[in-house]
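re: ur question from yesterday

yeah so i grabbed the chain u mentioned. its 120 aa long if i counted rite. heres the sequnce exactly as i have it in my notes:
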Amino acid sequence: QVDLVESGGGLVQAGGSLRLSCAASGSIRSLNSGGWYRQAPGKQRDLVATITRGGSPTYATSLKGRFTISIDNAKNTVYLQMNSLELEDTAVYYCNMRLATTMSGLYTYWGQGTQVTVSS
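ran it thru and got these structure tokens back, copy pasting raw so excuse formatting
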């Protein structure tokens, strides 16, 4: 069994910053990649950023460098540093990880989501 627990969401004023964390627990053999997605009410879940085990990131073009994804393989944790937050960033943020357990091959797991609300 693998559990992903997210933390760090909350209410922040426009222009502020938040750091989201996503920690995986369980019988993890290897972590291959991680990612962050977000979903606003009535909208589909969209990609924010992904990162490989080696630390190679990709970002949604619309974020324009405001967000930074990182990974700590030893802790089985991915992070999302969000700076210069805008009202349009308000959403539930979900992390995912593609990993292998001691008994299974690669599989994608999702966190429970954490609310990020940006106010004016």
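noticed a couple things. The mean pLDDT is 96. also The two ends are 41 Å apart (CA to CA).
anyway ttyl
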